[in-house]
Amino acid sequence: MAQDVLQQTYDAIVVGSGATGGWAAKRLSEAGLKVALLEAGRAVSAREFTEHVPSFQLKYRNHSPEVMRTRPIQRQCYACMEYNYEWFVNDLENPYSTPPDKPFTWQRLRILGGRSLVWGRQSYRLSDVDFKAASRDGYDVDWPFSYADLAPCYDLVERYVGITGAAEGNEMLPDGQFLPPMKMSCGEIRLRESIKKKFGRTLTIGRAAILTQLHNGRAPCHYCGPCERGCVTYSYFSSPFTTVKDALKTGKCTLITDAIVSHVEMDTNANKARGVSFVHRTTKETKQVRGRSVILCAQALESTRILLNSSTREYPKGLGNSSGLLGHYLMDHVVGGGASGTFQDLKILPNANPPHRPNGIYVVRYRNTPAEGKHPYFIRGYGFQGGSAPEFNMGAPGIGADYKKAVKLGTYDVSLGAFGESLANFDNYCEIDPKLTDAWGIPALRISMAHGKNEAALMRDAGITAAEMLEAAGANNIRLTTGVEMPGMAIHEVGTARMGNDPKKSVLNRFCQSHDVSNLLVTDGSCFVSSACQNPTLTMMAITVRACDHLVERFRRNEV
Amino acid sequence: MVADEKSPLQSSLIKRRDLIRAALFASAAAAFTPGMSFAQAISSGLTPAALGEDGSKFLSDPNWKAVFLNEHQNETLVALSDVIIPHTDTPGAKEALVNRYLDLLLSVQPAELQRQFVDALAFIDSESQKQFGRDFRSLATDDQVWLLTSWAYPRLPSSWMEREEKPDPGQKHFERLKALIAEAYYGSEIGQKELGWDREITRGPYEGCEHQIKDHT
Question: Would you call A349 exposed, middle or buried from its count of C-beta atoms within 10 A (0-12, 13-18, 19+)?
Answer without folding.
Answer: exposed
